[in-house]
Design brief:
Layout: E1 5-10, H1 24-41, H2 46-53, E2 55-56, E3 59-66, E4 75-85, E5 89-98, E6 101-111, E7 113-114, E8 119-120, H3 125-134
Antiparallel strand pairs: 1-4, 2-7, 3-6, 4-5, 5-6, 7-8
């Protein structure tokens, strides 16, 4: 069975438009928080890799498909899977559910980046090994 990182987020008032429907820019902000939580879960908290090690994981490609609107107060479950690990990139698949119902999904590519030179860099060996363990 593939490894899946799962976490929940409640849609707050600020995540929604005036009708109470989740606003897509807020979705992306939430997704970024889920990514940050995943990296902490696998042992590489962003505050350490950014400030101490001086590399980061910016998004270089993102696709989203929104199926069903989500509403203020609902709890969404974010499921993240690593589907490909490259020399300096990782492809993540996100499925976002409310109960058993898929609300939206996304495919995202992150790149290892030197924060001082603003260039891509190969994954550090230990990071690549960890990502490979998560790869489906």
């Amino acid at each position: 069975m593939p490894k899946t990182f799962t976490t929940n987020r409640e849609l707050r008032f600020g995540d929604c438009d005036i009708s109470g429907t989740a606003y897509f820019p807020a979705y992306l902000d939430i997704l970024n928080g889920v990514n940050e939580e995943f990296w902490t879960h696998i042992g590489y908290p962003w505050h350490e890799i950014i400030w101490k090690d001086r590399w980061g994981t910016p998004t270089v490609h993102l696709t989203c498909d929104f199926s069903i609107p989500s509403l203020f107060g609902e709890t969404l479950t974010f499921e993240l899977q690593v589907v490909r690990v490259g020399r300096s990139s990782v492809t993540l698949k996100h499925q976002i559910l409310c109960g058993e119902e898929t609300r939206w999904n996304s495919t995202q590519v992150l790149a290892a980046s030197d924060l001082d030179k603003h260039t891509s860099v190969p994954w550090p060996d230990e990071v690549k090994a960890t990502l490979d363990e998560w790869c489906t």
